[in-house]
Amino acid sequence: MQIYMVGGAVRDRLLGRPVNDRDWVVVGATPDEMLALGYLPVGRDFPVFLHPETREEYALARTERKSGRGYRGFVVHSSPSVTLEEDLSRRDLTINAIAACADGTSAGGLFDPYNGARDIAARVLRHVTDAFREDPVRILRVARFAARFTDFHVAPETMQLMREMVAAGEADHLVPERVWQELSRGLMEAKPSRMFEVLRACGALAVLLPEVDRLWGVPQRAEYHPEVDTGIHLMMVLDMAARLNAPLTVRFACLVHDLGKGTTPADVLPRHIGHEARSAELLQGVAERLRVPVDCRETAEVVAREHGHIHASGGLDAAALMRLLERCDALRKPERFGDVLLACECDARGRLGFEESAYPQRQRLAAVLAAAQSVATRDVSAQAAARGLHGPQVGEMIRQARIAAMARWLDAQAAAG
Predict the structure, then answer these.
(1) CATH number of the domain bearing residue 10
(2) Are residues 194 and 232 in the same domain?
(3) Do residues 281 and 187 both lie within one domain?
(4) Are residues 180 and 199 in the same domain?
(5) Is residue 411 part of a domain?
(6) Structural domain boundaries, residue 39
(7) Which of 2, 123, 375, 381 has its Cα between 20 and 30 A from that of 255?
(8) CB of 101 closer than 8 Å to CB of 167
(9) β-bridge mates for residue 65, sequence order
(10) Residue 68 confidence (pLDDT)
(11) 121 vs 104, 144, 382, CA distance in Å?
């Protein structure tokens, strides 16, 4: 039995990045031998075990044979005769196909049959073997790694291979859960735009997210969007979300906030009248198709529908601001409203020349909401009861008290100059 550290832990160590998770491969062992040593079985599709003390994953060396479409179409073979090189050959990228001795101290230290260390030094994302084409999830993984390792580039032969896979229909067989899993991870990387650039370059974006893909080449009014192209604007918004350390709910909202611009009739361009409502409708289709979590879907719907109103909220009076808060359900879900405002800031600053601009709407609307929340609703309800009011009448009295509180805050801001 020989044990090696493999994959991302070796790669990140060579890159000088923090190693958070370690994976291990075991060569020359059987499941019974692992059980006898106290390892706990967890794998369903192939033998994977948890270390009895560290709880890290140890997988028996294995090979895979394509048996059908999609990422599930594989027959897995694991036995003591499978070599380390055979196990590494089934991995996606050369930078992930490096093994290190378990103690990390042996001379040489690395087993690198596919020159992954060389590609790390050259900053290249390159497939290991032609077996890459057997798993379409690898297209998404390459795109995600491009978003994480921002100074790496995809090898031309790997990009060509991904194009061939898309043309062969492999991307059509990706299951929603895996698409969302990789997409959500990529959105949370250092430069999300690179994920979509790679997916677009190989043709996968048009298959997986046609609503997003069609935004490139759609013009916008230059006085508001000096970058003009809607697709370029979208990439700037996503990268601004990463710069501001936004959570996934915000980043997904940024991704889908302008989908309606892709359906604007050509004869009215570069104006996009009513694109907010179209965006809200289109994102629901995306969310259903990819089975997007409810919190991401709901935040995105509010941003798509209301981002134009939030951008223009600086001149609204207290009554109009109350209507805006109600449409955003801000009083019931103030934390979500905070995410909505952050997404709107990413949208406003994700424009050419506006990257360093302030976005006062975010602070102003947060303060307005705080003023509305400061109303003692129990006291107002007691006053309403004393006047013989009930039901909707009480609710309206509370609403008017909140508007009055917001008006006082606005007056105080105006007086302060």
Answers:
(1) 3.30.460.10
(2) no
(3) no
(4) yes
(5) yes
(6) 1-129
(7) 123
(8) no
(9) 75
(10) 56
(11) 20, 19, 71
Give the pair of three-digit tokens for residue 147.
């978003």
Residue that is last in its domain, among 66, 101, 129: 129
Dihedral sign, Cα of residue 351, residue 353, residue 358, residue 364? negative
For the chain, residues with pLDDT lower than 50 are 104-107
The answer as to whether 213 is a domain residue is no
3-state SS of 336-394 is: HHHHHHHHHHHHHHCCCCCCCCCCHHHHHHHHHHHHHHCCCHHHHHHHHHHCCCCCHHH
Q: Measured between alpha carbons, how far is 51 from 242 in angstroms, rounded to an integer? A: 35
Q: What pLDDT is stored for residue 105 in this prediction?
A: 41
Length of the chain: 417
Measure CA of the first residue to CA of the last residue in the chain; give whole Å: 75
| The pLDDT of residue 191 | 98
- Each residue's pLDDT tens digit, 341-390: 999 999 999 999 999 999 999 999 999 999 999 999 999 899 888 888 88
Q: What is the pLDDT of residue 200?
A: 98
Question: Radius of gyration over alpha carbons of the chain, in Å?
Answer: 27
Alpha-carbon distance of 56 to 5, in angstroms, equals: 11
Give the tokens for residue 76. 């897995």
Give start and end residues of each alpha helix (H) in 111-192. Answer: 116-122, 137-148, 156-167, 176-187
Please classify residue 308 by burial: count the beta carbons closer than 10 Å to its beta carbon, then call 0-12 exposed, 13-18 middle and 19+ buried.
Answer: middle
Query: CA angle, 137 as apex, 135 and 143 as ends, to 5°?
Result: 125
Q: Give the SS3 label for residue 321.
A: helix
Domain annotation covers residue 216: no
pLDDT (0 to 100) of residue 106: 42
Instruction: Indicate the pairing of strand 23-27 with strand 40-41.
Output: unpaired
Classify residue 220: in a domain, yes or no: no
pTM for the structure as a whole: 0.91
User: What pLDDT score was predicted for residue 102?
Assistant: 75
Joined tokens for residue 118: 């060389």
User: Which pLDDT score is estimated for 360?
Assistant: 97
SS3 66: strand
Asked if 13 and 111 sit in the same domain, the reply is: yes
Residue 107: predicted pLDDT: 42
Number of domains in the chain: 4
Q: Can you read off the two tokens belonging to residue 37?
A: 């040593």
CA-CA distance, 93 to 88, in Å (whole number)? 10
